[in-house]
Amino acid sequence: MNGKVALITGGTKGIGLGIAEALMKKGAHVAITGRSLESAEEAAADLNTRLGNSSRALGLEADVRDFVSQEKAMRAVMAEFGKIDVVIANAGIGHFGSVESLTTTQWQETIETNLTGAFYTMKATLDALKESKGYYISISSLAGTNFFAGGSAYNASKFGLTGFTQAAMLDLRKYGIKVSTIMPGSVATYFNGNEPDASDAWKIQIEDIGKLVVDLLEMHPRTLPSKIEVRPSMPPAARK
After folding, report:
1. 3-state secondary structure string, the chain?
2. Is the C-alpha dihedral spanning 75, 76, 82, 85 positive or negative?
3. Which of 120, 136, 154, 175 is catalytic?
4. Where is the Ketoreductase domain (predicted)?
5. For residue range 54-82, what is the model confidence (pLDDT) as tens digits?
6. In the sheet where 86-89 sits, what is the strand order?
7. Which entry of 6, 162, 164, 195 is 20 to 30 Å from 118 by CA?
8. CA 91 to chain centre
């Protein structure tokens, strides 16, 4: 991974930050995006302080719901590093509730962020990925194949993301581009207002997803794990 360049959406905390840390430890440069320039730059500065040596982190403001914003982020990465080898479409939100209580605004924000945002991220970086014969990885969810009450918007967005990523895999492999989706279960992150603490120790940790991304990138080019489900090995329900 030495000298490789990765663009990670939603990379200021949680899974995105865990992936950024794992890649920098392997010598890759990372560009992390967030809706707030301040939070993105703070996260990048922290990464550079802790891990920067041969690798560097760049913080960028970008909203995945805005294609122009995604194009701007792509150009900033190209200007800074000259290429993009890896794209991690990680940015996501969750609005939960029955179809009776779910508002149209919540529906639109969920679909636009989790699904349309991943499409915009791919479209904005596609030429760069063709040039580098790179790798696009989306962070979907087990909710992308398993529906549940109160999850209509989130299920729809993640079912769609899983389908989009798998279809894109078939479209783009002729260019030498690899495409995979990672589908985690419960992860110890700040998602949906959670504050990770000791009670989250049974969950998947962000460094576990980072390790999984590294494993995908280091796999022999002849092999492509296109859809990976990952879940806690011992959730509370399994202990009863």
Report:
1. CCCCEEEECCCCCHHHHHHHHHHHHCCCEEEEEECCHHHHHHHHHHHHHHHCCCCCEEEEECCCCCHHHHHHHHHHHHHHHCCCCEEEECCCCCCCCCCCCCCHHHHHHHHHHHHHHHHHHHHHHHHHHHHHCCEEEEECCHHHCCCCCCCHHHHHHHHHHHHHHHHHHHHHHHHCCEEEEEEECCECCCHHHCCCCHHHCCCECHHHHHHHHHHHHHCCCCCCCCEEEECCCCCHHHHC
2. negative
3. 154
4. 4-188
5. 899 999 999 999 999 999 999 999 999 99
6. 57-61, 29-34, 5-8, 86-89, 135-139, 178-184, 227-230
7. 195
8. 6
> pLDDT tens across 216-225, in order?
999 999 999 9
Cα within 13 Å of Cα(200), Cβ side: 14
- Report whether pLDDT(190) > 80: no
Concerning whether 154 is annotated as a catalytic residue, the answer is yes
What is the span of the domain harbouring residue 134?
5-239
Looking up residue 132, the CATH number of its domain turns out to be 3.40.50.720
